[in-house]
């Protein structure tokens, strides 16, 4: 500080400087150096994803009830100016004394203000020679993003340092706060050193405790290197130490390296009556702004220690962008080393395989945009054995899976022309079916629009390969082209579309002894013709004092496909279509290209919709049926279909604010008996949610299946949430999977408990318990149960 005498007017003090009092004195200084600049932003936690959800500095206080109280009333802080030398400086007090020629004593509500800083205290002593200021009693230091309270403070403007004793600090706007024995600020080195410091994001309880806090012997914040270093750091939860590290280092701005919160759980494998326990201990490495790595140690009872490493990156250079997630897992399994790899057959009998200790999995998920119309994707997994995911708790959704799809694909798009090449495979797990793989498939597409005409051509070349040597399936290379010419007229009240398709297919069969045809080359040409039209009628209706628009939409399609004997062609990727109302108007009753169904048919449907004044659909109902003008000889079973009409297809849907309902059913045309159904229901109100999914396939046949899945999530009170999930096989009258989730979620911390019971094979079950813990401000994991619930039920 410079000499304040030339910048304010004050009564001349007496000779001994006794009792010189006025109501308030104002000190104004027009030129100065910055007294201090305090580092005030801290990021505490490593990031699980490329976001700033867990950055303490950016921690949003969405609910004021959860925000810690301010340690001092906020002050209006003067705005900083570019020219620090010209920045104004104000000092106020109830009284002013001048004990000596070089010192000034301000007593009663002393206030010091300068751009970016406000200091309050009971008294202040300023020494113009030493350029120091001492503040005593109820000291408050305010900056835009930081508040500090202290018993006393000393500011040395000449050396650009400050010392505050017995302090409490708070970072804004997150209100993260803590205490420190003292804080030493050094403006030259841009450092703040806190001795015996603590830090938390929790509200202070009535007994002056906090639910959790970090305590440091020493905490150094370096604003120049943008790093924070803590020594002898201990994490306390409910005043109980739960974690210690001698060195705690993280950045102020970027994601931070460090331990993530663990997951504790248990599971039961096929050969065990009691559960195994495991702990997942992840450590996060912040390698670069676009690159990170997470190493997780998973100690498991009986099996040993598994290590899992997940490496992620994303980068962009000019028009090229690419990113990937690479996961590697490995362990020396003590259990399989002694008893062998254990699996079960379709009857539930245990099969003991080779004894081995080395078990691993490798996974990569990647996507790229190479520019100039080229993109690519890769999703690939490999495992050491088919029982890996059933035994090792690293990917919960695969513990009962029999296979996992994997593929690599390169795409090209340039205007109306598109092309791709892909390799489609399956990771075989327990009891995996033998499926064809595409090694590779090449496809091209070209679309051209001229007025109301649309010309489209699709062509694919697919090499169908069986991935195992012990099989009896034919293999072939299939070339399929389907040029399509369409003419369409459409307006607000009607539409008409005529379509011509020329299906040309050729099979080059491999000589592996399982070719159903006597020919090595099989060719097939099947044309198709369809004409589809519909009308839209509207009327206004009033219901419950609101206006709506109701539509009535009749639709009809005639489809003709001539008969071509295709019994000598193997089924590579063809099956019956699944239940869907839109399949009434499909050009082929089969998926894939190995069967083109012969038909002369008329499909009719009528749909009504209810729209609100904004045009949002809130209800829908429809019914449709196909009338066949001739028998269908092309089938998957070889038995012709002679029915003159199809089953009835019915759809119904509701979409209100709280309710969502969608159902498609298939009714027998003779007795209206339900044969297939797919129904989904969702009810959600604030923090309460109920989801249901019911599927029925082939009722009354030997292949009948019927599953009912129900899940719910509710907030019991302000801190407790309860979730349940059950998947019930209505044909065998047995629960396939049940889950119970219980979550405690306070302003400061959260914990979630998940128990699950999953059927493996015929009476064999996998029991698992998972516990997840979260400290608000240090981590943010949200509810795993709630996320899994919506995914399981396809919502």
Automatic annotation (TrEMBL):
Ranges for domain LptD C-terminal: 358-706
Superkingdom in the source lineage: Bacteria
Domain Organic solvent tolerance-like N-terminal stretches: 119-210
InterPro entries hit by this protein: LipoPS_assembly_LptD, LptD, LptD_C, OstA-like_N
Keyword list, A-Z: Cell outer membrane, Membrane, Signal
Entry's localization field: Cell outer membrane
One Pfam assignment: LptD_N
Protein family per UniProt: Belongs to the LptD family.
Role description: Together with LptE, is involved in the assembly of lipopolysaccharide (LPS) at the surface of the outer membrane.
HAMAP family (alphabetical): LPS_assembly_LptD (MF_01411)
Subunit relationships: Component of the lipopolysaccharide transport and assembly complex. Interacts with LptE and LptA.
PANTHER family for the chain: LPS-ASSEMBLY PROTEIN, LPS-ASSEMBLY PROTEIN LPTD
UniProt protein name: LPS-assembly protein LptD
Provenance organism: Thiomicrorhabdus lithotrophica
Phylogenetic placement of the source organism: Bacteria, Pseudomonadati, Pseudomonadota, Gammaproteobacteria, Thiotrichales
């Amino acid at each position: 500080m410079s000499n304040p005498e030339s910048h304010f007017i004050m009564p001349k003090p007496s000779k001994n400087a006794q009792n010189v009092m006025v109501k308030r004195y104002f000190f104004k200084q027009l030129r100065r150096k910055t007294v201090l600049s305090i580092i005030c932003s801290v990021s505490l936690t490593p990031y699980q994803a490329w976001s700033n959800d867990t950055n303490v500095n950016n921690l949003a206080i969405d609910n004021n009830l959860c925000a810690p109280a301010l340690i001092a009333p906020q002050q209006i802080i003067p705005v900083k100016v570019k020219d620090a030398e010209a920045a104004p400086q104000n000092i106020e007090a109830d009284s002013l004394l001048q004990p000596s020629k070089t010192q000034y004593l301000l007593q009663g509500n002393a206030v010091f203000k300068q751009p970016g800083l406000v200091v309050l205290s009971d008294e202040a002593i300023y020494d113009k020679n030493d350029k120091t200021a001492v503040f005593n009693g109820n000291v408050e230091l305010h900056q835009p993003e930081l508040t500090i309270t202290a018993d006393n403070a000393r500011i040395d403007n000449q050396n650009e340092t400050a010392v505050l004793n017995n302090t409490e600090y708070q970072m804004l706007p997150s209100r993260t706060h803590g205490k420190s024995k003292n804080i030493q600020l050094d403006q030259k080195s841009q450092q703040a050193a806190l001795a015996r410091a603590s830090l938390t994001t929790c509200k202070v309880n009535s007994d002056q405790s906090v639910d959790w806090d970090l305590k440091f012997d020493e905490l150094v914040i370096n604003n120049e290197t943008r790093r924070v270093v803590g020594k002898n750091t201990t994490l306390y939860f409910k005043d109980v130490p739960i974690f210690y590290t001698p060195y705690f280092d993280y950045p102020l701005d970027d994601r931070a390296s460090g331990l993530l919160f663990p997951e504790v759980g248990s599971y039961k494998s096929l050969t065990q009556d009691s559960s195994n326990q495991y702990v997942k201990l992840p450590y996060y490495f912040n390698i670069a702004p676009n690159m990170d790595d997470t190493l997780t140690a998973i100690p498991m009872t009986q099996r040993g220690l598994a290590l899992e490493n997940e490496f992620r990156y994303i980068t962009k250079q000019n028009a090229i962008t690419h990113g990937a997630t690479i996961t590697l897992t490995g362990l020396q399994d003590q259990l399989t080393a002694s008893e062998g790899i254990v699996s079960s057959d379709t009857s539930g009998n245990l099969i003991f395989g080779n004894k081995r200790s080395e078990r691993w999995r490798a996974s990569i998920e990647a996507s790229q945009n190479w520019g100039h119309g080229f993109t690519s994707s890769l999703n690939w997994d490999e495992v050491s054995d088919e029982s890996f995911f059933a035994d090792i708790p690293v990917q919960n959704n695969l513990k009962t899976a029999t296979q996992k799809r994997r593929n690599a694909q390169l795409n090209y798009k340039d205007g109306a022309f598109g092309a791709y090449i892909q390799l489609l495979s399956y990771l075989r797990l327990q009891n995996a079916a033998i499926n064809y793989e595409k090694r590779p498939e090449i496809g091209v597409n070209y679309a051209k629009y001229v007025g109301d005409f649309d010309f489209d051509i699709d062509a694919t070349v697919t090499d169908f390969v069986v991935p195992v040597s012990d099989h009896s399936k034919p293999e072939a290379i299939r070339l399929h082209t389907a040029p399509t010419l369409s003419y369409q007229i459409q307006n607000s009240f009607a539409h008409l579309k005529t379509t011509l398709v020329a299906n040309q297919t050729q099979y080059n069969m491999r000589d592996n002894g399982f070719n159903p045809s006597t020919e090595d080359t099989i060719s097939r040409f099947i044309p198709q013709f369809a004409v589809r039209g519909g009308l839209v009628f509207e009327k206004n209706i009033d219901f419950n004092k609101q206006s709506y628009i109701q539509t009535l939409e009749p639709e009809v399609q005639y489809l003709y496909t001539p008969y071509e004997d295709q019994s000598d062609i193997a089924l590579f990727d063809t099956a019956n279509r699944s239940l869907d109302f839109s399949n009434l108007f499909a050009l082929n009753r089969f998926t894939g290209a190995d069967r083109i169904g012969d038909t002369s048919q008329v499909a009719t449907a009528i749909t009504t919709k209810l729209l609100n004044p904004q045009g949002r659909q809130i209800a829908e109902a429809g019914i449709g049926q196909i009338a066949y003008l001739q028998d269908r000889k092309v089938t998957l079973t070889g038995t012709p279909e002679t029915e003159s009409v199809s089953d009835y297809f019915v759809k119904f849907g509701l979409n209100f604010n709280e309710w969502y309902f969608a159902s498609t059913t298939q009714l027998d045309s003779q007795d209206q008996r339900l044969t297939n159904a797919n129904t989904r229901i969702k009810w959600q109100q604030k923090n309460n949610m109920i989801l249901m999914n019911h599927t029925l396939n082939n009722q009354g046949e030997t292949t009948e299946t019927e599953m009912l899945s129900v899940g719910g999530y509710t907030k019991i009170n302000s801190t407790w949430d309860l979730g349940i999930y059950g998947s019930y096989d209505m044909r065998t009258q047995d629960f396939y999977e049940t889950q119970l989730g219980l979550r405690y979620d306070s302003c400061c911390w959260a914990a979630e408990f998940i128990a699950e019971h999953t059927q493996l094979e015929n009476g064999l079950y996998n029991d698992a318990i998972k516990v997840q813990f979260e400290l608000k401000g240090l981590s943010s994991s949200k509810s795993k149960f709630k996320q899994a619930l919506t995914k399981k039920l396809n919502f």
